[in-house]
Amino acid sequence: MLKVRRPVTPSQRHRSYLQIDGLHEGKPLKSLVGRVKNRGGRNNMGRLTARHRGGGHKHSCRQIDFKRDKLAIPAIVERFERDPGRRALIALLCYADGERRYILAPEGLKVGETVMAGPQVEVKTGNALPLEAIPTGIMIHNVELSPGHGGQMARSAGAAIELQAKEGGFAFLKMPSGEIRRVLLSCYATVGQVGNLDWENVWIGSAGRKRWMGRRPHVRGAAMNPVDHPHGGGEGKAGAGRPPVSPWGQKAKGLKTRRPQLSDKWIVQRRPRG
């Protein structure tokens, strides 16, 4: 449920948050928790490759089972938890052999339900199957790009992919962006839509809350000096004179910057522009 703060301070006037009932309030399973090192947007050479990153609250990551490789072993949903490293909720599964794992919690999954993975399991929310065993028209998430590599697509809160067709050993998937992509039928996917759909309606409300998330201020180029940005300088607000560019002079609107990838051959239809 989306809640709005009482405006007792200016920063809380437009702030909203999610109140979700039934979540586990205690600590996570210790054996499935790892450390997260804050790199501040820098690569392995220490060079800044992602601007406006850094700071933020310390948090630990949960080890999520994206592969779902425990086949034909039933697992009971014990509880739902928050994960500070993602917007989607996670579910703790207890398998019949006693092992516990975290998975992304799909919308509609309940505590106490049983989920499984394998080519012969039932097509229901939370079960993981190869694409060849899933009927067309079903919404799926946590989809593999290569067999056995674990789910890489549709993992954020509210994400879902539509299985449109199957032909020539490939499944045709409609991505949330509208792009249509081919994926091998032997790749695994989980049935259902990722939960926590209301996250897209949350209003951050204050700059400080954004800093807690590790996002630093984004300064406009027009507010800089000419030595710092091509848009900088001028008397007053100078909006004309050259097309919008990046700090390094590259065109910022309409120019394709994505380099050719090996996976481009699997894209059947690009996402719509605009």
Explain what you see.
The structure is a single chain. This protein has one helix spanning 207-212, and strands spanning 2-4, 16-18, 33-35, 60-62, 75-81, 90-95, 100-104, 114-115, 128-130, 139-141, 143-144, 151-153, 161-167, 170-174, 180-184, 188-191, 267-269. The protein contains 1 helix and 17 strands. It has a domain at 25-200 and 262-269: SH3 type barrels, CATH 2.30.30.30. By secondary structure, the protein is mainly β. It is globular.
CATH architecture annotation name of the domain at 25-200 and 262-269? Roll
Please state how the strands of the largest beta sheet are arranged side by side.
Answer: 9-16-10-13-14-15-17
The level of helicity is under 10%
What assembly state would you assign to the polypeptide chains in this entry? single chain
> Which CATH C-level class of the domain at 25-200 and 262-269 is it?
Mainly Beta
Number of helices: 1
Q: Quote the average pLDDT.
A: 93
- Gross morphology: globular
| Major β-sheet annotation | 7 strands, antiparallel
Query: Would you tell me which CATH topology of the domain at 25-200 and 262-269 applies?
Result: SH3 type barrels
What structural class is derived from the secondary structure elements? mainly beta
Order of helices and strands: EEEEEEEEEEEEEEEEHE
Number of strands: 17
Approximate strand percentage? 15-25%
Low-confidence blocks of residues: none
Question: Termini separation (Å)?
Answer: 31 Å
Radius of gyration: 22 Å
